[in-house]
């Protein structure tokens, strides 16, 4: 028998919560986006459908450490090609993952993918400032697009990606893997079902020590510092807890401890998001310290996710006790879900509009910090 993936750990959980949580494992696979995924996987398998071919564009750390290995575990898609600046690297990848050498492109030959039946989806995993150019080229080649977070360096670029995908009639999704993680799905459930009341006080931090001279601290390629890179996860969690976009933000950049290294982007930033109905979230993000947590409180209880944003090892405590969830292959689920969207003709639960919304919040945070912490409204679509 299959193990229920959502096991409340403590007896302090009420019977009602226990029963509800017992069913969440089924709910994870039985409702919403992931439910559609489970159904689609079964349906595709019954139809004997071919897996959709994915080409990874950008073979850096994330592709190497996470996405390539994740494509060995997907059920509706497979690793079919790469776009890379280094042909010899592409050859190594083709031998390792077993796709033909003809499916190696470089950044100037993306258009040659058009009409290639092996590739259905292009996954853009290049530096943030190149996402728009690369995603648009992939769409123009007629390929469905997954674009890594942050979607682009500006709302205008996000809009351009959305427009290009609409014009090419291809689907678009953003690489928010935590949309498929059960710990964060539980945050969605608490927000929706209000076990702890309205989650009106939230806080979170995502920080890591980064001290290399690399694209992550070059403004043209990164769009900003830790906020763009990892602080965005706090924004995503807060929007899930509030179930909407904030109306306004206030922010301040902290003094730099290494102004020589961080001469183009912030080193540490703190911000407050104001949501409708008095709901707030205090966020922070830094390249000069570690931090990985998210907390949401209502009148009747709280949930604390810590560590909150990793590929695994996420832990959840609540005012009613600890919750244990299974480790899931976040990236495999994410890519399979997108493949199922393409197969079923449905929209992704992590659509381009979500990436664009988060970019509007980030732009407002940077504007507020630049204007001495002035309350700044978040631009609507
Ligand atoms: P990386 O530096 O390790 O890799 C970047 C890749 O882009 C390299 O292969 C590099 O050769 C290529 N590239 C192409 N043009 C380039 C240029 N002009 N300058 C520099 N590199 C260029 O970075 P990464 O950590 O793999 O991050 C890539 C993207 O993935 C970023 O947008 C990042 O935010 C995102 N990311 C997402 C997650 C996640 O959990 N969803 C995790 C890590 C990274």
Strand pairing plus helix content: what structural class? Answer: alpha/beta
Instruction: Work out the helix count.
Output: 11
What number is the mean pLDDT?
91
> What is the molecular shape?
globular
Folded structure, characterized:
The chain is α/β, with parallel strands linked by helices and 381 residues long. The protein has eleven helices and 16 strands. The strands form two sheets. Strands 1-15-14-13-12-8-11-10-9-16 form a ten-stranded mixed sheet. It has a six-stranded parallel sheet with strand order 4-3-2-5-6-7, with helices on both faces. Strand 12 and strand 13 form a beta hairpin. Helix 3 (61-71) crosses helix 10 (330-344) and helix 5 packs parallel to helix 6. The N and C termini lie far apart (47 Å). Bound molecules: nicotinamide-adenine-dinucleotide. Nicotinamide-adenine-dinucleotide binds at residues 58-63, 85, 125-128, 130, 148-149, 175, 177, 215, 221, 229. Nicotinamide-adenine-dinucleotide (NAD) is lined by residues 58-63, 85, 125-128, 130, 148-149, 175, 177, 215, 221, 229.
